[in-house]
Write a structure and sequence with these properties.
It is built from 11 helices and 10 strands. By secondary structure, the protein is of the alpha/beta class. The protein has one domain: TIM Barrel, CATH 3.20.20. It starts with a helix and ends in a 9-residue tail after the last helix. The relative contact order is 0.14.
């Protein structure tokens, strides 16, 4: 017969073993804390793109509408602060997507361009930094030059990996690659920058960012957000229901990871997106996609919030160029954007 203290020791030992086994079982099911997939919330991204008038495809630094290559950091910061404030005041946005390329990051302009990111973050905005390829023959859906691409990301990640408001999108519209090739590159990016939390990475859908089903299915990309692009000009005409169906097949069962970080339609031509117009392709499109974003609880980032000379631009520059402000080009478009974000009142019967 064991003494009482021996029985207590045995019970403690048994309890400890059970606890360790339970922990081991939990690890088998969910992975270690370091490997556990983060909880994703795409609805937090309510944003717009701020673009270079050249559509962000450039063989030199990207210069956002309203900014100048000759602006100092301080001048850029002042302008960017006001533009970001106007995005919030006019649209209720909390996210801005910005282009980068090696010419911008690896050269002298980076010192000034950083002011845009810094100003947006200081205003509490989420910032999505996305790599754009060049123009002309370089506009082919491939990384232009890996010898400059990876140093660009080295610089950007070093600068912003500790800013929780900054997110990284390895490439915009990687349509030159097959689905598998693109997933391989995205996985390489994640391995290269393993210190970046996966829930601060946007993996573009394959093709023209036009479907996320293949990257969603790749276990190497687990825990990242997925970015989708969707445009009305992809079809000459479709009904509201056809646009809903078209969007949903591109998303599959991956809405809980997906942010539509480009979608748009004509905003400066007088269309009213608050009224059903079954014969108008773009009205059908905008109503269908924003209804679907809301239904599926997706995030969305409109293209473009600001781009000089673009009929899709939802904002336009006004006032002193040194201290710019923005005006909304189409209030019904802004209403649809807010509706997709889970705000406002329904505008379709």
């Amino acid at each position: 017969m064991r003494k009482p203290h021996a029985r207590r020791t045995a019970r403690l030992r048994t309890a400890l073993v059970a606890l360790l086994l339970a922990g081991a079982g939990s690890t088998t099911l969910t992975g270690s804390p370091a490997q556990a997939a983060p909880r994703l919330d795409p609805t937090q991204f309510k944003g717009v793109n701020w673009a270079d008038p050249r559509d962000n495809f450039a063989d030199d630094p990207v210069v956002l509408s309203g900014l100048s290559l000759s602006d100092t950091y301080a001048q850029t910061y002042t302008k960017a602060s006001r533009v970001i404030s106007a995005f919030r005041a006019n649209l209720g946005a909390n996210t801005v997507r910005l282009p980068i390329n090696p010419y911008t990051v690896n050269g002298a302009y980076w010192k000034s361009y950083r002011a845009v990111v810094d100003a947006a973050s200081a205003k509490g905005f989420k910032v999505i930094l996305s790599y754009w390829e060049g123009t002309g023959p370089r506009k082919d859906g491939f990384i232009d030059d890996e010898a400059t691409y990876w140093p660009m990301w080295d610089t950007v990640v070093k600068a912003y990996k500790n800013d929780r408001r900054v997110y990284f999108e390895p490439m915009n519209e990687p349509h030159g690659y097959t689905d598998t090739e693109w997933a391989d590159i995205a996985a390489k990016w994640l391995d290269t920058y393993s210190s970046v939390p996966r829930d601060r990475v946007f993996v573009s859908g394959a093709g023209y960012n036009d479907h996320v089903t293949s990257v969603c299915a790749d276990p190497r990309l687990k825990g990242t957000y997925l970015s989708l692009h969707h445009y009305g000009f992809w079809k000459e005409y479709a009904t509201y229901d056809q646009w809903v169906a078209d969007l949903k097949v591109r998303i599959g069962d991956c809405a809980n990871r997906t942010v539509a970080d480009e979608f748009g339609a004509h905003m400066t031509t007088g269309l009213d997106y608050n009224k059903p117009m079954p014969d108008n392709n773009f009205v059908n499109f905008m109503q269908a996609v924003t209804d679907t974003f809301r239904e599926l609880k997706m995030g969305s980032v409109y293209w473009p919030g600001l781009r000089t000379g673009d009929t899709y631009s939802l904002q336009k520059l006004v006032g002193d160029p040194a201290r710019p402000w923005l005006e909304t080009t189409n209030q019904s478009g802004a209403d649809r954007l807010a509706w997709g974000w889970g705000r406002g009142k329904p505008v379709r019967p």
